[in-house]
């Protein structure tokens, strides 16, 4: 059995490594158009900020290590066409510019995403940076020496992680965001708190501002928006990503409008013997029952594992996502799971919410910090639908408890009597989650 995997980072290499462990005899070939393999893209902002000192620390396994386990890895090889009827792909060798066709028994598409760019007037002259691949992180890091003022276009989580890390290096950072709040997926009260915390790091924000064009002015770049102009040394665009699936456009594979590949719960695409995993695919959202484009590393790794197990003959399914995420904001953790209240409203779901501010540990125990928690629920049934929280301590464990409860469709009543561990250094006798849930009177 010849298994070809397209893309050699989180999803692709998860398939390769797991399949190798499950099936010693499968021929596994990986085509990766870049030079880098199996790296933790999520760590790139922290490499830029100097918290992770060496880029090699981001690499989980090298090409040599994969090859030692019998995985044939071809870097600098781009797959440019799929012929699903003949079960072949066309590959471009980027070193020689030669192309060739090769046959697969099973094909795995794990091609991730690429950064969307503004392409406004002056874009080609200014060549703003993006942060999508490892080579982008290296380019940004190695250009920072003479940089003082940085404009970041886009106040989503990638833009903010870069902003925070550049502020950590004492750069003057200005974030320009089109919408009325940063982190548009969060309810505004949480976005505001995140903004305040980043302002404490001297990061500046311009909201509801549209980038219009760039101009060069000697060594400076002038960023021109519909409201103002900013003279900076570096521009980084973080305005979103789109799936790397253009080469599949005429293959007949089923996709969302933006090109994210639709799969069933076994990660099988609409084409026979072809799977898709990671950022290039859409995931079923368990709360909306729709396929959605939510490109995150946690899903890439899991869907990669699911595919390997299915190829090896175990029937494994990926149950879908509920939209959990977490981000470091200065000294705070901001996290969300399930649906936000704003999101629910947009979906015409008549949900309610309760907010609570509580201490992460007993108030009398030194070092207690406040957490703001919002619980979103269905007022007809009391079933928990979402949670958001922000605080200095104790956010990551609590958001995951809530994720579990939402996944299991627990009601507030069921949740309120859960047997949480308690001792003063770790939580108050009534955990902040229980205090929040107890506000729900159903
Ligand atoms: P990718 O990592 O994009 O890999 C796809 C690979 O396919 C690429 O190397 C590409 O060169 C190759 N490829 C594309 N087209 C072809 C082709 N035609 N032929 C051959 N090769 C091809 N997620 C989280 O869950 N938490 C985080 O904190 C987090 N932080 C992030 C921070 C940053 C700055 C970024 C950029 C991402 C972050 N993510 C985070 C998202 C996470 O990194 C991605 O979800 C994950 O890397 C996706 O893995 P993937 O294998 O699907 O795609």
Task: Describe the protein.
- With 442 residues, the chain is an alpha/beta fold.
- The chain folds into three domains: 2-112 and 241-311, 3-Layer(bba) Sandwich (FAD/NAD(P)-binding domain); 117-237, FAD/NAD(P)-binding domain (3-Layer(bba) Sandwich); 332-437, 2-Layer Sandwich (Enolase-like, domain 1).
- It has twelve helices and 24 strands.
- Strands 3-2-1-7-17 form a five-stranded parallel beta sheet. Strands 20-21-24-23-22 form a five-stranded antiparallel beta sheet.
- Helix 1 (10-22) runs parallel beside helix 8.
- The longest helix has 15 residues, at 297-311.
- The chain is globular.
- The mean pLDDT is 97.
- The structure holds flavin-adenine dinucleotide.
The geometry reads as globular
Biggest β-sheet description? 5 strands, parallel
Q: What share of residues are in beta strands?
A: 25-35%
Summed up, the domain count is 3
Overall pLDDT score = 97
Small molecules (ligands, ions, cofactors) in the structure: flavin-adenine dinucleotide
What is the end-to-end distance? Answer: 55 Å
According to DSSP, the number of beta strands is 24
Structural category: alpha/beta
| Radius of gyration, in angstroms, nearest whole number | 23 Å
CATH architecture field of the largest domain: 3-Layer(bba) Sandwich
Which fold name corresponds to the CATH topology of the largest domain?
A: FAD/NAD(P)-binding domain
Q: Helical region count?
A: 12
Task: Record the strand order, biggest sheet.
Answer: 3-2-1-7-17
SSE layout and pairing:
Layout: E1 2-6, H1 10-22, E2 27-32, H2 44-48, H3 63-68, E3 71-75, E4 77-83, E5 88-93, E6 99-103, E7 106-109, E8 113-115, H4 123-126, H5 134-142, E9 149-153, H6 157-168, E10 172-176, H7 188-199, E11 204-206, E12 211-217, E13 220-225, E14 229-232, E15 234-237, E16 241-243, E17 274-276, E18 283-285, E19 290-292, H8 297-311, E20 325-329, E21 332-338, H9 341-346, E22 352-359, E23 370-377, E24 384-391, H10 395-407, H11 412-416, H12 432-438
Parallel strand pairs: 1-2, 1-7, 2-3, 7-17, 9-10, 9-15, 10-11
Antiparallel strand pairs: 4-5, 5-6, 8-16, 12-13, 13-14, 18-19, 20-21, 21-24, 22-23, 23-24
Helix pairs in contact: 1-8
């Amino acid at each position: 059995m010849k298994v070809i995997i397209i893309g050699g980072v989180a999803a692709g290499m998860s398939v390769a490594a797991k399949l190798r462990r499950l099936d010693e005899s499968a021929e596994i070939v990986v085509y990766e158009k870049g030079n880098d393999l199996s790296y933790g893209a999520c760590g790139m902002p922290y490499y830029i900020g100097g918290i992770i000192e060496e880029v090699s620390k981001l690499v989980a396994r090298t090409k040599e290590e994969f090859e030692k386990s019998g995985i044939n890895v071809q870097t600098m090889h781009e797959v440019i066409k799929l012929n699903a009827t003949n079960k072949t792909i066309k590959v471009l060798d980027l070193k020689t510019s030669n192309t060739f066709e090769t046959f697969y028994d099973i094909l795995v598409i794990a091609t991730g995403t690429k950064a969307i760019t503004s392409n406004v007037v002056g874009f080609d002259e200014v060549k703003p940076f993006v942060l999508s691949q490892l080579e982008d992180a290296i380019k940004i890091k190695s250009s920072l020496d003479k940089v003082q003022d940085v404009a970041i276009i886009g106040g989503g989580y990638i833009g903010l992680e870069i902003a925070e890390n550049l502020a950590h290096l004492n750069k003057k950072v200005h974030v320009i965001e089109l919408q009325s709040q940063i982190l548009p997926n969060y309810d505004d009260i949480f976005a505001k708190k995140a903004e305040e915390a980043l302002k404490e790091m001297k990061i500046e924000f311009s909201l509801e501002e549209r980038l219009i064009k760039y101009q060069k002015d000697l060594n400076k770049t002038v960023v021109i928006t519909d409201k103002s102009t900013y003279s900076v040394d570096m521009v980084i665009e973080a305005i979103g990503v789109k799936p790397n699936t253009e080469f599949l456009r005429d293959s007949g594979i089923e996709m969302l409008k933006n090109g994210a590949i639709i799969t069933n719960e076994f990660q099988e695409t609409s084409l026979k013997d072809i799977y898709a995993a990671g950022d290039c695919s859409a995931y079923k959202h368990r709360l909306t029952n729709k396929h959605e484009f939510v490109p995150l590393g946690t899903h890439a790794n899991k869907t990669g594992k699911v595919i390997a197990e299915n190829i090896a003959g175990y029937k494994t399914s990926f149950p879908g996502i509920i939209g959990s995420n977490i981000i470091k904001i200065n000294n705070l953790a901001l996290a969300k799971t399930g649906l936000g209240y704003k999101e629910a409203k947009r979906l015409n779901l008549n949900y309610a919410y309760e907010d609570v501010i509580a201490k992460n540990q007993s108030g009398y125990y030194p070092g207690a910090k406040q957490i703001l928690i919002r619980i979103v629920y269905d007022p007809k049934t009391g079933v928990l639908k979402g949670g958001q929280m922000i605080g200095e301590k104790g956010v990551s464990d609590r958001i995951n408890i809530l994720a579990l409860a939402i996944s299991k469709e627990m009601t507030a009543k069921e949740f309120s009597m859960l047997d949480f561990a308690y001792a003063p250094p770790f939580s108050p006798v009534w955990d902040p989650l229980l205090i929040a849930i107890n506000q729900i009177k159903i």
